[in-house]
Structures are given as structure tokens and as C-alpha cells.
Amino acid sequence: MAVDPLIELHGVNKHFGELHVLRDIDLTVGKGEVVVVIGPSGSGKSTLCRAINRLETVESGTIRLDGRPLPEEGRALARLRADVGMVFQSFNLFAHKTVLQNVSLAQIKVRKHAREAADSRSLELLDRVGLAAQAPKYPAQLSGGQQQRVAIARALAMEPKALLFDEPTSALDPEMINEVLEVMRQLARDGMTMVVVTHEMGFARSAANRVVFMDDGRIVEDRPPEEFFTAPRTERAKDFLSKIL
Ligand code: ADP
Ligand code: MG
């Protein structure tokens, strides 16, 4: 596929002490692409995501966003975190702020928008994830699925170039998983560039342009979902799929 690259990793390595958690990672995510990352627990999926918005530093290799190396510190780093939004398994909303305030806060602090403009944009985004009516409530008054949709709205409020999702539905009760995946599918259709770590293989099949399979810190397969799921090339991927499907 001839798309402009947005996220590019070349020869990336990372250790935690003796543990080699990212091994010679090469990965390119094009603008508008949806890449689903799967693999066993401990294979380095979260570290990979965290490296892309520099929540983790790496020891060697290069990571570029839109052609530029990731900034090291200061304001440029804060902007990077806004440009590459991240949605975690634990929704990480501010418990003592309302839903509306949660979505508006970084628009005001990081993007320097006026409160009124931020709030009005927040309401639009909450509407987009089906939660406009919940704006005055506090996170604890919402279900897990609703809280995760607020977290997605909050990330979108930064007008990110890309969104990283690290197991966004793993902490949810089964009946709430689909409402979150549906919001993510809609984002994908709207052309958002997304890297999604998930065990939801239905989502991978229906929304991903590529599936990246990680094992022991390496990218072992990187292929379109229909190929990966019908004919995984490696024994490790076959073994993994046989356990989760
Ligand atoms: P995954 O998301 O695929 O489960 P992670 O990227 O979280 O894998 O972790 C990869 C490996 O690195 C695991 O063995 C994990 O225990 C280890 N690890 C992750 N974060 C840290 C850390 N901050 N300090 C030490 N080891 C870590
Ligand atoms: Mg993880």
C-alpha cells in the first residue's frame, strides 16, 4: 500500500535490566492505517506503544513521527503526547472532575484553548461517542464502557495525528466491549491512524489493515489480517492463535 508513513520505527531496541524487551523493531504505520498488535503476555506490546509516544525511552534505533525524530523533552514532548494520544486498559480519568472537565482539561492546558471553546468541542466529541448526556457526571457514575469512551473523546480532543490503544477493552465486562470497539471502528472508518493492542480478533479481522504479531520482543509477522488468520507463517503465531481462537 503506497501511503505516506506517519509512524516509523527502525532498529529499535530496549532493555529492562537484563531483559531485552524490544529487539530490532522495524515498523511503519501509514497515515490512516489501522495496525493491530497481538502476541503473548510479556512480548513487548505495551512497551512498543509506550515507546511511540516516549513514555519509554529506547536505547538504539530511530522512531519518527511524520518524518521527524521524537522530541526528547519540554514542550515538544508535551505536544508529541497530544499528537499521539494513548488509550489505556485502565481509563485513567480524573475522578474528581466531571466528564466534561476530563475532556476539556488538556485542550485548555496543552492546546491553550479558551474554556468555552474547549467545552463546546468536548460536547461535540462526547456526542460522537454517544455520551453527551453524561457530561455533568463524574467518572464513578459511569459504566466501564462509558468511561473508556470518555477516555477516547479526551484523546480525540487533542486532534491527534494518531491514537495508540493498549488493550482498551481488557478491563471491561463482556457486554461493554462492543460499544467501545464500535467507537474505534468508526474512528478507523473516519481515517484515524491507529495502533491497537488487543485480544479482540473480530476487531482485528474487521478493522485492521495489518496485524503485527509480537513474540519475545520481536515482530514475528506483519501481514494483512485475512492472510495472518487463515495462514499464519510461524509456529509461534499458530500456537498463539490456537490458544485464543
Ligand atoms: P506486553 O504488553 O506484551 O504484555 P510489556 O511490554 O508490558 O509486554 O512487557 C514486556 C516485558 O518487559 C515483560 O517481561 C515485562 O515484565 C517487562 N517490563 C515491562 N515494563 C517494565 C518495567 N518498567 N520494568 C521492568 N520490566 C518491565
Ligand atoms: Mg501490555
TrEMBL record:
Family, as annotated: Belongs to the ABC transporter superfamily.
PANTHER family, A to Z: AMINO ACID IMPORT ATP-BINDING PROTEIN (PTHR43166), GLUTAMATE_ASPARTATE IMPORT ATP-BINDING PROTEIN GLTL (PTHR43166:SF9)
Gene3D superfamilies the record matches: P-loop containing nucleotide triphosphate hydrolases
Catalyzed reaction equations: a polar amino acid(out) + ATP + H2O = a polar amino acid(in) + ADP + phosphate + H(+)
InterPro entries: AAA+_ATPase, ABC_ATPase_HisP-typ, ABC_transporter-like_ATP-bd, ABC_transporter-like_CS, MetN_ABC_transporter-like, P-loop_NTPase
Annotated Pfam families: ABC_tran
Full protein name: ABC-type polar-amino-acid transporter
The organism of origin for this protein: Streptomyces adustus
Topology versus the membrane: Peripheral membrane protein
